[in-house]
Predict the structure of Phosphotransferase.
Amino acid sequence: MAKVVLVTGMQAAGKSTIAPLLAARMGPPAATLDGDVFYRGVVAGAEVMTPDPSAEAVRQLELRYDASALVAQHYADAGFDFVCSDIVLGEHVERWFSRLRDVDPYLIVLVPSVESIVEREIGRGGANSYRDWGPSLEDGVRALQAGLDEIPRRGLWLDTTGQTAAETVDGIDLEKARW
């Protein structure tokens, strides 16, 4: 049975770096997808998530999550292990996994410190992904991070502060990540 892994966490937590490294370790055959592909797919009428999102922003977010779960299922049906990276928080995690059938599901939540995320975000050139979430970058990270508390305490939760991507992947025990 194919393994399907959801790697989630905050913006700048390392998800899109960790996911392909993990998939490469799992396969062959294995595939990966960053949910940002679907986020960037809406080119007209895109609405971003904010602390007080519009109904359309929520609808677009759910379309994105549904699309990535469908792609994960498609690859799993073809016998591939699959790793999806995206910011999936709260009840959306359970919903994402509920769309999968006949797979071994795993959840990995990357939880580096607020300071680490701020440093990484600044290192990306100052494109503040948290601008709608607080008066400062640190406040924005803390506000959005509250969504992690709404994820069911299942799977593997990793504090990756100070770790390289390779160290994080080496520390992943899929048995502990089982959904």
In short: DSSP finds eight helices and five strands in the chain. The domain at 3-176 is CATH 3.40.50.300 (Rossmann fold). The helical segments are 15-26, 36-39, 55-77, 91-98, 114-123, 137-145, 165-170, 174-177. The two ends are 15 Å apart (CA to CA).
